[in-house]
Structure formats: C-alpha cells, structure tokens
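[agent] plan:
  1. take the single chain provided in the ticket
  2. run structure prediction with default settings
  3. attach structure tokens to the ticket
  4. add a short note for the reviewer (M.T.)
[agent] executing step 1
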Amino acid sequence: MIWCKQLGQTLEAFFAADVPTWRETCHLSEEALQKLVVAQAKLTGQAFLVEQLQHEGIQMMTVLDEQYPSLVKKFLNRNQIPPMLFYMGQLDILQRETIAIIGSRNASEASLAFTRTLAAYLAAQGANVISGYARGVDRTAYEGATGTDGCTTVVLPHGIHKLSKAQMRDLQPRIEAGNVLVLSQFHPDMPWMVSRAMERNHIVTGLAQIVIVAESDSKGGTWEGANHALKQGRKLYVRQTVAGESLPGNALLLEQGGVAVAWPVEHIEQAFAVLLHESETVQQKVQAMPVPPEQMSLFSAS
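[agent] step 2 finished; step 3 output follows
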C-alpha cells in the first residue's frame, strides 16, 4: 500500500491517523474510510486484549513480524497463511530441525510404539517434534519427545484458552523450561471445530522440513494432511506395516510418493538417522529460498 511502501510509514502510524489524512494520502473510498473509523474505534479494546494475554504468558505475532515462521510463508498458499499466530513458549524452538509426526486418533499399538520411539529419538538428537496435540499419534509424539527432555511444538485446533486445566498443568512447567512451544492460529477463546482441526493440519505440516506418517486411513485429517504435504513438495515418510496389519492409507501414500520407514527395527540409529539427515538438508535449502513474490505482495498489502 502507498502508506507503507511509498511513504515508508508504519501500520501503527496509519491506524493513528485521521480521516482527512487517509483520504488525501491514500486516496481511499468513503466506504473504506468508514471501515477504518470502525476499526480504529476497536483498537482500545484490542490493546486491552493484548495486555491481558501477555499477563497470561500468551504472545502473538502477525505475518508482518520478522519472527513469523519462514517455512509457513514459503510453502503454504497465501489463503492458508494465518495472518496472526498466538503462542506460549520460546520461538527459538522453531530454529531447530523441525519434523512433524502425524497419524490417526485411533491408532494401533504398533503405530503408537513407532511414534513414541521415533519422537523420543528425534528429540534426543536435538530436533523439534511437531504434532497436533490430539489423542492417539499426536499425543504420543508429544509424550515421546518430552519424555527425553527434548523439544516439541504443539499446534492447537482451537484457541489457547480452550486447553483444559489438566493440560495446562502438564504444559506449563515444560513451557517455562523452554522445552515446549504451544501455537494456535485461532483467537484464544475459539473452541474446537472439525474445520479448525483441518486448518491446523496445514500449519503442522507447514512448519516442518519433513513429515512422517505413523498411521493413516484413506480419508480423514491425517490423509488430507499427508496429501497436502506431498502437494507442497515436502518429503513424506510413511511407516511400513507389520505382518498381518492392514493400513490402506499408508499403502496408498507410499504409492503416491511417500518413502517407507521400516518398523519394527533392531537398530534405531540406523533406521532413523536418515530422517535427521534429510531434515537438515531441507533446512539448508529452505533457508536459501526467498519468499515467493505472491507472498510478499500479501504481506505488504493493507
């Protein structure tokens, strides 16, 4: 917009200006001016919200902020990039190798054993394990990572205020210790909805250099998330099934380009070290990638 790009002014100064300034400088329509007046009137309430959230240890960042996750900007479509993220914890966790583990809420014991062992190994090696914090594979990934005092990021399908008291009692000391980062793209008071869980999945895969599927059906959230990762050009790893096990989603994902991960294994280091190596390789490539022009135009828009 003219205000930021041509005049070099900040968005804070823009919203502090008056109607004549907006009209003369930015040549806005009367309809746009009226909307800005309404938005300006709400700023006091928004400032109170920010202060309240900070008191609770909840921070927020916009897509214009430097600390906004670069992987999300570079790999998600512009309509999938949340304009704002709420978080609790240290954002430095996102500078590590980031590996997402996704899977069914009703996963088999074999899938849960795979997830727990893999998450513990990755976290012990210094990686940031990302999951959606739902029951099943998500929660097991969280438990595996935190069981080694490693780092993990949980991406919520609802607002941070909707975490239960029991969940907060578990999360809070880990957040304070710097081991857990909690992220949400939703207003802190927004409840869980199926559509929000699906939106959350884009961020889980968008934050990661590689994505690992523990167990997937041929439909549902894990299936959609895995296919979305493939469409993003992400390296997708998929657990092989054990004898007598039928996982149609895993089989189809392997046919579509997923890379098999053997399980069970005798030597964890030999089986899983390649995942860390691939994550590091992707991390180095992505750091050298510019933000796509269409994303830049989104960030500079008013």
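[agent] step 4 note for reviewer: The first strand starts at residue 59 and ends at 62.
[agent] ticket updated
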